[in-house]
Specification:
GO molecular function, one term: transcription cis-regulatory region binding
Oligomer: single chain
Organism: Caenimonas aquaedulcis
Largest sheet: 5 strands, parallel
Structural class: alpha/beta
Radius of gyration: 18 Å
Keywords: DNA-binding, Phosphoprotein, Transcription, Transcription regulation, Two-component regulatory system
Strand content: 15-25%
CATH class of the largest domain: Alpha Beta
Strand order of the largest sheet: 2-1-3-4-5
Number of helices: 8
Distance between the termini: 25 Å
Helix content: 40-55%
Pfam families: Response_reg, Trans_reg_C
CATH topology of the largest domain: Rossmann fold
CATH architecture of the largest domain: 3-Layer(aba) Sandwich
GO biological process, one term: regulation of DNA-templated transcription
CATH superfamily of the largest domain: Response regulator
Number of domains: 2
Length: about 220
């Protein structure tokens, strides 16, 4: 899952970034409203975590413009603006949820998981195929019922393929799931993570489609 974090406070941003990555999300972090608008116009996200008091452009205007383009990505506002009127304005502008700083990180992550589940139309999202099960709600993985530890980036590579068996994902599509905003991309990163997943899940779990990419085969 890929999250856009829009936060200008360096201390808060670092803490939230670390928490999201520890919970196996790919994160793009931008620090002003103009960069947020650019990211939302050029990239695809599973959720936006949006501050309101931003440099260059207010977060509420970023949100209004986003909804004006009929983009339905879930938006969770996280801001110091705690007046009832501010909450109403944020929700009326199209936010799906609203939390006030300072917030508890565990609660923030729970709200993010709930919004992603809701947007996917799944009350209890679980992907299971050929004995491998991923539960995005709990961030747990298993092979034939036995727990297996996946790194955040292994999870990011595997989840879209396991959710759509038989669909070929190109290297660039998987890189988009894997990396955060402006992170360096090594030339063989996808191959490295696919190799690691095969060792943990079985050599036949992920197939290489020469010249095209990778897929989880149908049963």
């Amino acid at each position: 899952m890929r999250v856009l974090l829009v936060e200008d406070d360096a201390m808060i941003g670092e803490a939230v970034l670390d928490a999201l990555r520890a919970d196996r999300y790919a994160v793009d972090w931008v620090r002003d409203g103009v960069m947020a608008d650019t990211a939302l116009r050029t990239e695809t996200y599973d959720l936006v975590l949006l501050d309101l008091g931003l440099p260059k452009r207010d977060g509420l205007q970023v949100l209004r413009d986003l909804r004006g383009r009929h983009v339905t990505v879930p938006v969770l506002i996280a801001t110091a603006r705690d007046a009832v009127g501010d909450r109403i304005a944020g929700l009326d502008a199209g936010a799906d949820d609203y939390v006030v700083k300072p917030f508890d990180t565990d609660e923030l992550l729970a709200r993010i998981r709930a919004l992603i589940r809701r947007s996917a139309g799944r009350g209890e999202p679980v992907f299971s195929h050929k004995g491998v099960t991923l539960n995005p709600a709990t961030r747990e993985a298993s092979v034939h019922g036995e727990p297996v530890s996946l790194s955040a980036r292994e999870w990011a590579v595997l989840e879209p393929m396991l959710a759509r068996p038989g669909v070929v994902f190109s290297r660039s599509q998987l890189e988009e799931k894997l990396y955060g905003w402006k992170d360096d991309i090594s030339s063989n990163a996808i191959e490295v993570y696919v190799h690691g997943l095969r060792k943990k899940l079985g050599s036949d779990m992920i197939q290489t489609v020469r010249g095209l990419g990778y897929l989880v085969p149908r049963l």
